[in-house]
Amino acid sequence: MAYGSIKANTIIFNSGGGDTTVDLTTLLSNGSDFSGGVIEATSFTGVTGVFTTSLSGASITGSTGNVDAITGVNAVFTTEVSGNLYKCSGDVTVISGSGDVRPYGLYSFPTTVGTANYVLKTNGDGTTDWAAFNNPTVFQISGITSDTNAIASTYYVLLSGLTLTLPASPAAGDYVGIINRSNTVTGTIARNGSNIMASGADLTLDNINARFRLVYADASEGWVIL
Asked: How many domains does the chain have?
């Protein structure tokens, strides 16, 4: 038996003396569900699609798609897209899960929205993290009159004799600036578990006009004075 094709809105079958009409316009329409394997189409609009294999050669405009893979399509999703893998127009954007949007498969985004004024930084392995933006031409300066826990990338103006505790778990390149304006040589820079100039001891200020920057180098040297 040879197989062909029919293009029609309805098909009428005659069986047992009676007619059975199949309305093809209701088989796939806005708001309907469709489950299947391979679909080749020009337009697929307003449906919820569950595709177990692949969807190729189609233009997709709709609300919700739950799929394993979409390849070679121009996809426009108006509200929500959920599933495992989506490739949109020319592989420019790949979404392989919540918080994982990768241009050409290179980068994944953090799963949180981050903090105001933070920027994305690459970890060098395809992942990214939020990081504080530090403008090298603008100093973060804080005048302090009591014991304080230091924050990296900040200059502290000591206005009285006090203890400034360095950040815990610093990373290479972190720095803390210190300016002594207390009119006293009494002050302590607490190392907080890291070495200072390769020494496991706190730093005592002995200069009434001390001004310097401590930069974290590594576990051995710890914070070094610049």
From this structure: 2
